Amino acid sequence: MNSRINYVTSPSFLEKILTTSIEKKAVSYFVMCSPWDKVSKHLVEGLSHQEANPDQPLYLIDTFEIPQAIQIFKSVINKIKPTMNLSTLKYNKVPQMIVMHKAFPRVVDYNGAIYAELGL
Known about the structure:
Elements: E1 4-8, H1 11-24, E2 27-33, H2 38-48, E3 57-62, H3 69-80, E4 96-101, E5 104-108, H4 111-118
Parallel strand pairs: 1-3, 2-3
Antiparallel strand pairs: 2-4, 4-5
Helix pairs in contact: 1-3
């Protein structure tokens, strides 16, 4: 998957992106990574060398800048779909990818699956 990389720099920006994505029923990709983690560094470096597809954005979330990212995901989804079970949204490790398909989150936290999904 070639995608355009967007860096999420604030909690309010993340909330806006999630709300828009859910309301438009779009597929969105969010990767939570850490600048201190070797695997995250390698992932971001690999993504930066890919050709960008402007139709499919990929949002990178730095877990040191926005440590409450999972809580933001839960609160935004809960506002729009209050009956949804959000037990799969857990902060297990970095890197971690959350694929939002319409309003349904899918967590990918196995490194090999993240690389395969992103085409690396």
